[in-house]
Write a structure and sequence with these properties.
0% strand, 10 helices, single chain, 215 residues
């Protein structure tokens, strides 16, 4: 399926409104032939502000809809999957989490025993929260370079609010986790000497009192 700009230029027997749109687009060097985003074409028309601006925008929207319909029919299910790719991965992630929870609660009998240990539960919560926070940061970084500029500005505001909350909670969890590990290491008893290990009394630093010989 060709790009929208090429598809529009090669339309056979265009209607009067489409012909007017082509007459407006052909002599322009700034016509965005490199993109398939409708907003880029509308921006060029609005910036030029021709007398028949509304007619051109209407014709542009109609032809863009026709091009999208032909593109969907020619490529089958791929465009539909691409449009709902985010929903698909979100549903897949929710399904994986639900399966993991069901496995831990009803199948793995050792899960409750591991969670009864404070160290195991603390380590698991810290790992999950740190992994989720890093995943969100990487996702925002990737979409900054991948998504269109307008979409990034809208989504980044929401992601920034989410990151502000998540990073604050992550800092609290990590500080408490590693701080408690440091305190426990400081309070740990020193290792036992070999003499203490076999049950003999510890040696005293006080010198023994000499015993007088019998007369």
């Amino acid at each position: 399926m060709p790009d929208f700009a090429y598809w529009l230029r090669t339309r056979p027997n265009p209607d009067p409104d489409t012909a007017a749109l082509l007459a407006f687009a052909d002599p322009r060097s700034d016509w965005p032939w490199w993109t398939d985003r409708l907003a880029d074409y509308i921006a060029i028309i609005q910036a030029a502000n021709p007398p028949n601006k509304d007619v051109l925008i209407t014709a542009l929207g109609i032809n863009y809809g026709r091009w999208g319909s032909e593109r969907t029919q020619s490529q089958g299910m791929l465009p539909k999957i691409g449009d709902h790719l985010g929903t698909f991965f979100l549903a897949l992630f929710g399904l994986i989490v639900a399966i993991a929870i069901c496995y831990g609660l009803f199948i793995n009998q050792n899960f409750f025993k591991l969670m009864a240990d404070i160290g195991q539960a603390r380590g698991l919560i810290t790992f999950l929260f740190a992994f989720s926070t890093i995943a969100i940061i990487l996702l925002v970084a990737i979409t900054t370079f991948w998504m269109p500029k307008e979409d990034v500005q809208i989504r980044f505001e929401k992601a920034k609010d989410l990151l502000t909350i998540v990073i604050g909670v992550l800092g609290t969890i990590l500080g408490f986790y590693f701080g408690s590990l440091t305190v426990s290491e400081r309070q740990a008893p020193p290792p036992a000497t070999p003499a203490q290990a076999v049950g003999s009394p510890p040696a005293s630093n006080v010198p023994a009192t000499p015993v007088a010989p019998p007369r």
